[in-house]
Amino acid sequence: MPRSLSVAVERFPIAGAFTIARGSRTEAVVVTATIGDRGVIARGECVPYARYGESVESVTAQIEAARAFVEGGGDRHGLLGAMPAGAARNAVDCALWDLEAKTTGVPAHVLAGLDRVAPATTCFTISLGAPDAMAEATAKAADRPILKIKLGGGAEDGARIAAVRRAAPDAVLVVDANEGWREHDVAAQLAACAAAGVALVEQPLPAGQDDLLASLESPIPLCADESAHGLAELAATAERYDAINIKLDKTGGLTAALELAAAARAAGLDIMVGCMVGTSLAMAPAMLLSPGARYVDLDGPLLLARDREPGLRYEGGLVFPPSRALWG
């Protein structure tokens, strides 16, 4: 049978709610690209993100528009010029990686030039809430080695991070402000984080309004997320930040993410490999970035009420590489 491309929208309930500075949601809506080729079925998953002007409808339409390229035999290298960066290209790119691994018999990590992918310690996310609620959630996860704390700006953030630290005195804390702070309070917010022994602060200021960071003497390393999508922003990122959060939905797939990771390391930046709230199918390709990452934040499936089967194996604070039945 000739190569085929199909696209599906799937919904996975979140365990409780996932809340950040921009809002709250109770389900993960993912878009899956499936490529069939001579009896082989390959998949890639993405999460449309309204913050970047994406919707389920726009991402689905972009994948459908790539049908001629994919069904005509296009590969992941040619895809970089055939589709713009973003969630849609991520789903297709990861499906093409999966297809190549399955049709050649060569595991995806070997195709990426890696001898092996070891289990990685992943962050576990504590959603934004009142200080007491965040402390309660933290206490339930206090045995996890790295906690990622969502903050939202305003006077309560200092109380939030102090409450979290009291609930998890031994955990490494990473703070994610999700663009919620402002120039007038960023120094005070960073001081509060420093007092709590925070190891890294992610995206303290809104993208496009973070020039201040180039001259700010931060007491804590800073990580770019919304300010850094790909190679085009790398020079500015290196001037303002100490690390970059690489997400496949931002870069438009694993192919571009590997290129960005190599360039970021060459620029002296640490790497966090991050994710949107999706299933194990979205996390699996991102695991190939973990060997070169200082921080791994691939806890998306842990926030869901149910995951795909088979899914990734999570044990304590570790996430294990995917089985070939899942991806790659």
Tell me what the structure shows.
The chain has 328 residues and is an alpha/beta fold. It has two domains: 4-108, Enolase-like, N-terminal domain (Enolase-like, domain 1, 2-Layer Sandwich); 120-319, TIM Barrel. The chain has helices at 56-65, 67-71, 76-82, 87-104, 108-111, 131-140, 156-167, 186-195, 234-240, 248-251, 254-266, 280-286, and strands spanning 4-20, 23-37, 40-46, 120-121, 124-126, 146-150, 172-176, 200-202, 222-224, 243-246, 270-273, 295-296, 314-315, 318-319. It has an eight-stranded parallel β-sheet. A three-stranded antiparallel β-sheet has the order 1-2-3. A hairpin with a 2-residue loop joins strand 13 (314-315) and strand 14 (318-319). Helix 1 (56-65) crosses helix 4 (87-104), helix 6 packs parallel to helix 7 and helix 7 (156-167) packs parallel to helix 8. The longest helix is centred in the N-terminal third of the chain and has 18 residues, at 87-104.
Can you describe this structure in just a few lines?
By secondary structure, this protein is α/β, with parallel strands linked by helices. Helix content is 33%, strand content 23%.
CATH architecture of the largest domain: Alpha-Beta Barrel
Number of strand elements: 14
What portion of the residues fall into strands of 2 or more residues?
A: 15-25%
Residue share in helix: 25-40%
For the largest beta-sheet, the strand count, sense and barrel status come to:
8 strands, parallel
Instruction: Indicate the structural class.
Output: alpha/beta
| Shape estimate | globular
Q: What string gives the helices and strands in order?
A: EEEHHHHHEEHEHEHEEHEHHEHEEE
